[in-house]
Write a structure and sequence with these properties.
Helix content is 83%, strand content 0%. The protein is mainly alpha-helical. α1 packs antiparallel against α6 (132-178) and α3 (49-76) packs antiparallel against α6 (132-178). The protein is elongated, with a radius of gyration of 20 Å.
């Protein structure tokens, strides 16, 4: 396989990685890093030194952004620690628990719905001092905070992943296409 064909395959993998960064639970950053690793090994790490360091930093930041955004989303609506723990437990249980029921979308749907349901249940249990509708409204408000935080986090994660791809292309384009 010639270097130009490999380059376009690596770029295609990176674009898939950016798309996956938008969807909760998919390893978009890992796909991009794998593509860069394939490229680096194929070219014996020529010309990718400093840009590779920036790309890795950007991708590490993008991984933490989603969790930070969810945390800030629930914190913004006055969520308790119980709802935050519930959201984390719900993400894990949803990711693992829905796999047999929905083999294609189960882990992804479970990740998102598990976080929403976990935050709702955690907040509902914590707010036992509130009466009926006020308790329910607070738990629903926290669930909305999880959704908004997740959406914002995924958008930022996708933008950071796209930035990593742009850095890669800018640092390698002239070596591959011009030569």
């Amino acid at each position: 396989m010639d270097i130009i064909t490999l380059y376009w395959i690596v770029i295609a993998l990176m674009i898939i990685g950016v798309i996956c960064a938008i969807i909760p639970g998919l390893p978009g950053s890992s796909i991009i890093l794998t593509a860069i690793l394939i490229w680096s090994i194929a070219t014996k790490f020529s010309g990718i030194g400093l840009p590779l360091i920036f790309i890795v930093i950007v991708l590490i930041l993008s991984v933490g952004v989603e969790y930070l955004a969810i945390y800030l989303g629930v914190k913004q609506v006055g969520a308790s620690k119980w709802s935050q723990y519930g959201a984390i437990a719900g993400m894990v249980l949803g990711f693992v628990g829905l796999i047999p029921a929905l083999p294609l979308g189960g882990p992804l749907l479970g990740f998102l719905f598990g976080a929403i349901l976990g935050a709702f249940l955690g907040e509902y249990l914590y707010r036992s001092n509130l009466e009926g509708e006020a308790r329910l409204q607070q738990a629903l408000k926290v669930s909305v905070g999880v959704v908004i935080g997740s959406i914002v986090g995924n958008i930022i994660q996708a933008l950071l992943a796209a930035l990593a791809v742009i850095i890669f292309i800018m640092s390698t384009w002239s070596e591959v296409i011009v030569n």
